[in-house]
Amino acid sequence: MMPKKELIRIVKTPEDEVLIDLTGKKSGRGAYLCGKVSCFKLAQKNKSLDRALKHHVKPEIYEQLAEDFTSVENEFLAVKEQSSDE
Predict the structure, then answer these.
(1) Is residue 56 part of a domain?
(2) What is the DSSP string of 16-47?
(3) What CA–CA distances, in Å, run from 69 to 7, 9, 85, 86?
(4) In this structure, is residue 37 part of a structural domain?
(5) Domain residue limits at 54
(6) How many other CB atoms sit within 10 Å of the CB of residue 57?
(7) Calpha distance 37→49 (Å, rounded)
(8) How many domains does the chain have?
(9) Residue 2 lies in a domain
(10) Which of 8, 3, 1, 4 is nearest to 77 (CA)?
(11) pTM > 0.85
(12) Where does the YlxR domain start and stop, copy by copy (predicted)?
């Protein structure tokens, strides 16, 4: 259990797209992961995103999410650090 601001939201949109939602405001069913790539890899291994989103997440979507997760990890951690300083 962590505060919502310390988690990254993965969302399945009404158009059946699965993507990262850093704003936390996109419509659709969401799942939250800690901001580390290791958390994402564990979720992929356990298929916990499939269960949370109530949707089969295809392997190619996991690959794209892994790339996206890596690219947003540093941005997410910087925002988290900045908000903790205030």
Answers:
(1) yes
(2) S-EEEESSS--SSEEEEEESSHHHHHHHHHHT
(3) 12, 11, 24, 25
(4) yes
(5) 8-80
(6) 21
(7) 14
(8) 1
(9) no
(10) 8
(11) no
(12) 1-66
